[in-house]
Amino acid sequence: MDPLRRIKGLLQLGTGRDTAVLLSSLLVAFVIWLISNLSQSYAGTLSVPVIAECNIEGHASVSDSPAMAVARCHASGSALLKNRNRSGRKPVRVSIDRSDLRQTGPEEFCLTGSAMNAYVNAIFGSGATVDAFISDSLFFRFPYMNNRKVPVEPVQDLRFRDEYMLTAPLSVVPDSITVYGEEARIGGIDRVYTSALNLYDLHESQSGTLRLGRIKGVRFSQDEVAYSIDISRYVEIASTVQIEVWNAPAGKNLQVYPSTAEVVFRCKFPLRRDPSDAFRLYVDYRDFTSSLTGRCVPRILKLPSGVIDVRVTPEVVDCVLEEQ
Question: Are residues 158 and 171 in contact, defined by beta-carbon separation less than 8 angstroms?
Fold first, then answer.
């Protein structure tokens, strides 16, 4: 008997509930069959338009037109069906490492077959296996863009536990980045700020990353920087230091008032030696000759090893020239 006639007979003999169960069973069986067939691997040709994204210094980050990637692949039936119906769909955007692109012209770059293997899943979808590329190279054009290099300014609010402090200013790497955009937008940018770094009760060195604050219509060469903070416990040592006079010509006697200064050293803990033994404070005669008031700021020759910070009182001294 014809199978269709048998099914028709069953539908006529059964109750409404039996009919619903049968139809549901047929629908489930069809879905299982469809999923099974679409998930199996088939050989076919896939063609995918690709827009490349890459961070190339001096150029736009996105290629201005797609390149067509064509390959003979083994892929699932659903992938092949999807590719067959992708006419009019947007190109696939693929992020490409700069080292995989070869420059072939002022604005032209090429992704060759050997490097394309790393981007098979990004282009053709996960699970696709390329048997052979029909298009052995992809060519992209990254137009030139206005750019300039600017320093990175960290935004910070750092608070320390008692007797702890920075041994050096907070540093970021890199300390400058390249910004890209229309000249009208980037011409007024003299620095780029990080997101705020708020750290409290600091008593040990820290490191991490900071996001850069975005500027509308401007692209950065990178979106974050690494930071490091060197923190040490310190001990304070006070000392009275003689103020010397340097570079006074023969026959000139420069008197400094007061002739000594009170100096407070902040030294890394534990303290290994008295820093005042290697500390020298002086007034440069040339500073005096260029001063309109005869007042000078004492200079520090060199901070002794282990000294993090130093505070000198007074900060300014009076100088009087006496002829010999």
Answer: no
